[in-house]
Amino acid sequence: MSGPAHTGMSRTTVQRNHALITPESHVPVQLPGWTNTEVVVLISAEMGAKFEQCMVTCHAGAELVPLRSADELFVLVTDGAVTLAVDGATHELTKDQFCYVPPNTAWTISSAMGAQLLTFSKPYIALGEVAPPTLLLGDLNKVSAEPFLGDEGALLQVLFPDDLAWDWGINVFEFAPGGTLPNVESHFMEHGLYLLGGEGVYRLGENWYPVTAGDCIWMGPYLPQWYAATGKTNSRYIYYKEMHRAPVG
Length: 249
Ligand code: UGY
Ligand code: MN
Fold this sequence. Notes:
This protein is mainly β and 249 residues long. The chain folds into two domains: 26-125 and 136-140, Jelly Rolls (Sandwich), CATH 2.60.120; 144-242, Jelly Rolls, CATH 2.60.120.10. Helices cover 0% and strands 51% of the residues. The protein contains no helices and 19 strands. The chain has strands spanning 13-14, 18-21, 35-43, 52-64, 71-86, 89-94, 97-101, 107-111, 115-123, 136-139, 146-148, 151-158, 168-175, 191-197, 199-204, 207-212, 216-219, 225-228, 235-242. The strands form three sheets. Strands 1-2-17-14-19-13-12-11 form an eight-stranded antiparallel sheet, with no helix packed on it. Strands 3, 4, 5, 6, 7, 8, 9 and 10 form an eight-stranded antiparallel sheet that branches. The mean pLDDT is 96. Bound molecules: (2S)-amino(carbamoylamino)ethanoic acid and manganese (II) ion (MN). (2S)-amino(carbamoylamino)ethanoic acid is lined by residues 173, 181, 185, 191, 225, 239, 241.
C-alpha cells in the first residue's frame, strides 16, 4: 500500500525473481556523463536482472551519451521532446516516439526544453555472423495493434522487426477492462515492464499485486506471470523481452 506520507507504507517489493517498483519509492540519481538529468534506475543488474530500465527526467539543456559502449538502447519519449544525434544526422523525437540505437554507436540525446524518457538497455548478444540491428525510429501511434492469440480484449503492438538480428523485443499491450493474459506464463526470458495507463492485478509467482500507471515490474526467468485489467478504462503497458536467442548458462 502507498499510504499517506510518513507511515512507512509502499507497494514496492523486491524479491529474488521479481520486483514491483512504485512511484513513491523512486530515488533519482545523477549518472556520470549525463547532464541536467535525474534518473530513476528502476531495474538493474544489482537486482539480478540482465538489463537496465530507467526513467529519465531531462531538464532544459539535458544531454545523454552512451554509458557502456557494448549496450544497445531503446528510448521512448513519454513527455516533451529530445534530439537524437547519431551517424552524422539528427532526429527530433516527441511524446510517443521511440528509437533503437545499436551497440558500439556514438550517439547523443539532448533536450532543449525538457522531456521525460523511459529507457531499456543491455549488452547486445551477437549471433554468429548475423549483423546487429541498425538504427530504428518509430511512433507508438503508427504501430499496428493485433489481437493477442485472437483475443480482441488484449491488443499487442510489436515495435521491433521479427528478425534474428534482434536479441530483444519491446512490445506494448493494451487490455480492455476485464481483459487478461490468456494463461499463466512461465518462460526463461526476463521482462521489464512499465504501466503506461490504467490499472489491474499482476500475478508474479505466488503473489497477486494491484498495479497502476507509473508502476514498474521486473520478472525474472520462469517467473509465473499473469495479468488482469481490473479498472474501468483500458490498461496499457510497455515491456522488454529477450528474443531470438537460446538460453545461456
Ligand atoms: O511476451 C510475453 O511473454 C508476454 N505475453 N508476457 C507478459 O505480458 N507478461
Ligand atoms: Mn511473458
